[in-house]
Amino acid sequence: MAANMRGLTQFIADIRGARVRELEEKRINKEMANIRKKFKDGNLDGYQKKKYVAKIIFTYILGYKVDVGHMEAVNLISSSKYSEKQIGYLAVTLLMHENSDFLRLVVNSIRKDLDENNEVSNCLALHAIANVGSSEMAEALSEDVHRLLISPTSQTFVKKKAALTLLRLYRKHPTVIPAAEWALRLVSIMDDQDLGVVICVTSLIMALAQDHLDAYAVCYTKAVDRLHRLVIEGEYSATYAYYKVPSPWLQVKLLRLLQYYAPSEDATLRSVLHEVLQTIMNNSAEPSRNVQHNNAQHAVLFEAISLAIHLDASSPLVGTSAVLLARFISSKETNVRYLGLDTMAHLAARADSLEPLKKHQGTIILSLRDKDISVRRRALDLLYSMCDTDNSELIVGELLRYLKVADYALREEMVLKIAILTEKYANSYKWYIDTILQLISAAGDHVGDEVWYRVVQIVTNTEDLQEYAAKVVFEHLKSPSTHESLVKVGGYILGEYGHLIANDTGYSPLEQFQVLHSKSQFCVASTRSLLLSTYIKWVNVFPEIKPQLINIFERYRHVLDAELQQRACEFYSLASRPDDDEVLQNVCEEMPPFPPRVSALIGRLNRKLGDTEDKRTWIHGGKEMNLERHANSRKATLPGSSAPGTATVTGTADAQDVMSSLAGLNLSSSGDQPDSSRVDGSVVAPRVAVGPSVEKWFNKLTYSAEGVLYEDVQIQIGIKSRYQGHLGQLAIYLGNKISVPLTSFTSTIHVNDSEALSATFAKIPPNTLVPRTQSQQLLHVECKKAFSSFPILTVSFLAGAHQSISIRLPISITKFIEGVKLGQADFFERWKVIGGPPREAQAVFPITLDGTGQLDLVRYRQVVSGNHLEILEDVDPNPSNLVAAGVLHTSVDGKVGCLLRLEPNREAKLCRLTVRSTSEDVAAEVLRLIEKLLRLDSS
Amino acid sequence: MISAFFIFNQKGEVLISRLYRTDFKRSIADVFRIQVVSNSDVRSPIITLGSTSFFHVRVNNLYVVCVTKTNVNAALVFEFCYRFISIAKSYFGKVDEESVKNNFVLIYELIDEISDYGYPQNSEIDTLKSYITTESVISSAIAAEESSKITTQATGATSWRRGDVKYKKNEAFVDVVETVNLSMSAKGTVLRADVDGHIQMRAYLSGTPECKFGLNDKLVIDKNSQGGASDAVELDDCRFHQCVRLNEFDTSRTISFIPPDGEFELMRYRSTSNVKLPLRVIPTVNEIGTTQVSYNITVKANFGTKLSATNVVLRIPTPLNTTGVDCKVANGKAKYVPAENVVVWKIPRIQGGQECTFSATAGLTSTTTRQVWARPPIDVDFEVLMLTASGLIVRFLKVFEKSNYHSIKWVRYLTKASGSYQIRF
Which residue, B285, B280, B279, is CA-closest to B316? Predict the structure, then answer.
């Protein structure tokens, strides 16, 4: 601080010196009165204001109520001196809560500071926004913060703060930030030179990408690339190495980010990622002496293992990690044990085979007795996840034994988990009943109603079980102290199935009645009414104890509880009807089996898992649970997309119109990433660049192997292509035409129908393009099935501002056709075999003649042969007619034959094009492609 | 009984620590410090943690604490604490941190004397002073003689008095001191008015005199008899010094006693009916908009013109956002004290029947959160000599002694208020 404020120092010294609270209060009251007077009198210079506001802040921090000085603080913000501005901002962030009216006055000053060319003011303003984070500020200022973040002139530390400010605003007011619109621009900052900026932006993107997966899909490549550079190429400045680990925070964030996305299809990315993960695991194979080094390494390692599991739970990497994890769970450090168990639970939740985990079952069970409760919890989760039919008896037995000594906080969850496991992996029903009753009698209060409902459901639906269940329940009821849940189960089961065991010695009706009734006085009203229902059932099946039962009904007719009284009255009159009456029998028919329903237990368990800041990418439980969950979440997003009603429907229809007129793209029905994109309301597929020359270049390339695809003042994109069967290779030449490097260069391929066509870069594209040079990128394409839309190449880069160009790549189905030579007879034979529609596609369209009034036959030939069809000479008697044949190679659907006949008519200026193919889709598509090219000159 | 006795200062540091029994360790003091001194939520004077009870009394930022494990009579323990405080006061004037530190040897001596194995013992100040002296050295011969006297006195019928007191001039002073508590609503109705009184006596009488004490004719004590006349003086909760013969009082309502030598408190009482309020305060306080408050306060002396109230201090609260107060007074001085958010109006003397007025305007500053001013009550302190608010009058004090000497008796009355004479507005 420039000038030290003597008054403030004195004030603080006085307060510190006050021996008792009363003196302190007196001093503060006095000071406040003085400040009020000064403020009221006005005419204060900046220094005085600063001093008094500082005193107010100090008083406020001490916990006293302060209700003056807000205006002065607001004035200080607009001061030009740093120290005054700083105190002003401090006061604003401390004194004003987010709904304070004064914030409205501040917004403009803050905007001014954001716009200023002074980094320090920028930072102060950013701090204030992040600290207060009111919705009004978010609405008014998020644009400005974003501008600071992306501005090329911003200093790194401003960028860092801006990114974190946006993160805070997004967390607080997610609707205010147009996350999808900013996606590309924000992702491009992940290529920043400064790792600090990258960390901050990655944090921001992590938050945004969770909610806008598709819009931020580009970050996948960026993250992989960054990891590669960080871990393998060691490209980082020394300041970012933390105990020799290159920026562990960034690594963890990137690895976590990658887990939000489904594993990439791109082979290159996969191999790079594999290499990265492998390196990380190798690095941390040897624990080092240094605690900090270990911590950093473990942090990265655990996240890497999680990612490996996420990518492919059966890869050898996961095998390696299982070995590592095994070492961790018996580590001496509590944190490591905790993380080890947690990650193992992840593994158990995703892996196909639990064998590697079962080897460590003993250790895991021992962890249930760990001294740290959080570790015990994780061990419980892990045991729950790794349980299957083979080890269920062991695990459940162990859990039951542990339940008796477990913490109260843990018991309810344990009970639920034991109940689920018992039901799911029961080898025999007897075991199920034994275990669950043991559970109810052991855990007592922690047993939710769902548990015993489920027992009743299962017993009712399983006929073989009923007698056994009745016996076991009876035995349990005989013990002197029983829990109420057990009485409920007992009441129900004995009522329904008591007669099955009534003839055995020791289970006579009277004994059953006595045992059950002896418990009734300790029970609440709802249990008693359940017991009354049991008694009426017994009136039906055990006439020998009818007098006792009627006696009970008689007594209950006078209790205060309305429910009990009503039941008793109804049952009493029902029981007192003459013996030959059939009403009772009809009423007390045996319960029909319940319709099979999903156990309510799992729902209950899932409800208990609160949402934390980061979405979990998996849940506890076996593999099926995770699969189910994925399906559910997908389903859940569907209704959301249709919810807004007709407006969206027409909206998407419009969008489809536009798209189909461009290139017949039907984006919203692509298989892989459909739902959330519509929910966001933003179109995922980039908008394709248009323009007459773009169209010309593109059309030219559809029937030639090389040429220019796009060109403007900054960049030139050219293409060379080679096709062999169903495979093709495109060399994309990217030329930088200006004198500065294009940074944060990203190129991505968007394929609509990834089932039919795959396009991947041979390696991750470099992210800078040196001035006046050309770089080449190889793109591998493979045709799997017939497809109808062109893939889209999106190139984005920073040249001053962020630019993004999307262009269709001239990869059509005809590129994968190989011409065949056929004789006249062969041709017509096949032509006839294929026959008319639907496997024939035909179109008649007008054509223009060339300058001399002749048909442009040369061009027609060029177009047809450019589409890889072999022109057959001497097949058609009319020389101006063209006949061609070819075979389409696809990797999935195999080969598809294709015949073409073009009949131009000079007089009518019309042309008839007929395509016959063994596949109707192919016929229509080839027709569409060639017709479009031939038509062109008519326009 | 009491197992341990501590004195803590404001910060929770132990100044005095005495364990009477072995059932506690010294570290029990830490428990009190953590649970009570540093825990601002606890304001109850008795805290029981497990089977341990802490009784504490606060005086001048000191905590006087007794700790026990048994179920003792709480009133007894508090009486013990207060008795300790009054003993300490009479030994070294003021009880605060500094005086405790300066006199710690004396204090240990005292607390060992007034309690034995946790049981309270003779705590009569005059008696104690005869053998626990602040002067250090007494010659041993006298000490031996004295100590035998002490023994006879402490074990005799009148443990509070020695038999061989001789004065040239036999005098007895009686001071009736009453403290008036009042809270009056803004409308002028009395919400609560009562009087705490005590009769302090200084007896310088020879021999073992038998005294008889007579109060008002129409006196209702402890309101047992319902038929008290409306203008009668009613006393509740009378409490007498141990020298008063209670059985005589119970049967015939006469107060007779053999007084201890020197100063003692003869009686304590409370009166809640027919309280005469010496000062009448009529406040008019208006909030003018949000920027000003105007005050107009009249104080009227409500007693005979011969008497006068002295040291009258009115504390008139101001809103918390006051910037300054402009006061006009005819009598005394008025000043805004920002540290306490009050205007202090001091009047040295008000004659009976006189009226004083105060008018002021307070300027306010604007605040962020507009909250209603709570209007705390006006607080009045004063002293009026020769007046009892309860109407209590000493009719006679008779002294009978074998030698039948003549004695001179003086009676003084004082009514005062400090801190609890409050008028809302």
Answer: B285
Nearest CA-CA distance, residue B374 and chain A, Å = 15
**Longest pairwise C-alpha distance within chain A:** 117
Residue of A nearest to B370 (CA): A67
**pLDDT, averaged across chain A:** 80
Are A572 and A557 contacting, i.e. CB atoms less than 8 angstroms apart? yes
Joined tokens for residue A859: 């061009």
- pLDDT tens string A496-526: 888 888 778 778 888 888 888 888 777 888 8
Total-model pTM? 0.67
Pairs of CB atoms within 8 A across A/B: 45
Chain A nearest CA to B364, separation (Å): 8
Cα end-to-end span (Å), chain B: 48
Query: Using N-to-C axis directions, what is the helix angle for A70-77 and A103-115, rounded to 10°?
Result: 10
Site of tokens 């890869």: A315
Binding-site annotation, residues of A:
6-7, 38, 47, 51-55
Rounded to a whole number, what is the distance in Å from the CA of B363 to chain A's nearest CA? 9
Amino acid making up residue B193: A
Under an 8 A CB cutoff, do B324 and A37 touch? yes
Question: Nearest Cβ partner of A40 from B10, B341, B365?
Answer: B365
Check whether B116 has a pLDDT greater than 70: yes
Show the tokens assigned to A475. 């035995």
d(CA B300, CA B304): 12
Mutate to test the interface with B, among A25, A31, A34, A36 (most CBs of B within 10 A): A36
∠ CA B332-B337-B343 to the nearest 5 degrees? Answer: 50
CB-based burial, A255-292: b 16+ in 10 Å, e otherwise = bbbbbbbeebebebbbebbbebbbebbeebeeeeeeee
Answer yes or no: is pLDDT of A675 > 60: no
Contact between B341 and B333 under an 8 Å Cβ cutoff? The reply is: no
Q: What is the pLDDT of residues A800-847, one digit of tens each?
A: 677 788 888 888 888 888 888 888 888 888 888 877 777 888 888 887
How many Å apart are CA A103 and CA A92, to the nearest integer? 8
Instruction: Say yes or no for a CB contact (<8 Å) between A68 and B338.
Output: no
- In the prediction, which pLDDT does A705 show? 79
**CA–CA separation, A824 vs A850, rounded Å?**
30
Q: Do A37 and B323 touch (CB under 8 A)?
A: yes
Q: What stretches of A795-919 show up as alpha helix (H) in DSSP?
A: 824-834, 857-866
Closest approach of B305 to chain A, Cα-based (Å): 39
Nearest to B269 by CA among B211, B227, B219: B219
Does the beta carbon of A320 lie under 8 angstroms from any beta carbon of chain B?
Answer: no
ipTM of the complex as predicted: 0.70
